[in-house]
Amino acid sequence: MQNNLFNHIFTRDVLRTLTQISWQRLTRGKPRTDNFYTISSHYGPRSVNGHDDRFRFIGSFTDKEGTLQLSNVTLMDEGTYTCVFTLFPSGIHETAIPLIVPGMIHSKCCSCCVCMYISIRRDLIENEQLFIYNKCATINLECAKSLGD
């Protein structure tokens, strides 16, 4: 039913201030890089360049978690999602998350999608790619950036 795009930033330097978390995508449905979601302390979470009800912010700006929830994933969602943290004074830090949707699995007994729950840590994803096998799987993507390095 839903898929999570998870981004969390870790910082050992308390002098760095998070000013914005942005999400970009380059997908089958959006063949040009599209800035589609931002989260800021002043404006909160908001869609940009058109609203897509399937995306919902479930992270915490205060905790530097940029988690987006994506529901009803389709083949048109396949592509690369990039989470961008804007920090002052150090600038931007970004992580790209490839998302591959090879097809749908359907139940033969009831002609409906077979739902399953999958939790995947980014460091365990083979070849930096995530495969979603059906549109109702719930998947957690984690991209982390250590800013102290």
Automatic annotation (TrEMBL):
It holds the Pfam family V-set. It is found in: Membrane. Its main location: membrane. This is Immunoglobulin V-set domain-containing protein. Gene3D superfamilies: Immunoglobulins. It comes from the Eukaryota. One of its GO terms (biological process) is heterophilic cell-cell adhesion via plasma membrane cell adhesion molecules. GO terms for cellular component: adherens junction; membrane. SUPFAM superfamilies: Immunoglobulin. The lineage of its organism: Eukaryota, Metazoa, Chordata, Craniata, Vertebrata. The keyword rRNA processing does not apply. InterPro entries: Ig-like_dom_sf (IPR036179), Ig-like_fold (IPR013783), Ig_V-set (IPR013106), Nectin/Nectin-like (IPR051427). Residues 18-93 form the Immunoglobulin V-set domain. Coiled coil: none annotated. The keyword Cell inner membrane does not apply. Keywords: Disulfide bond, Glycoprotein, Membrane, Repeat, Signal.
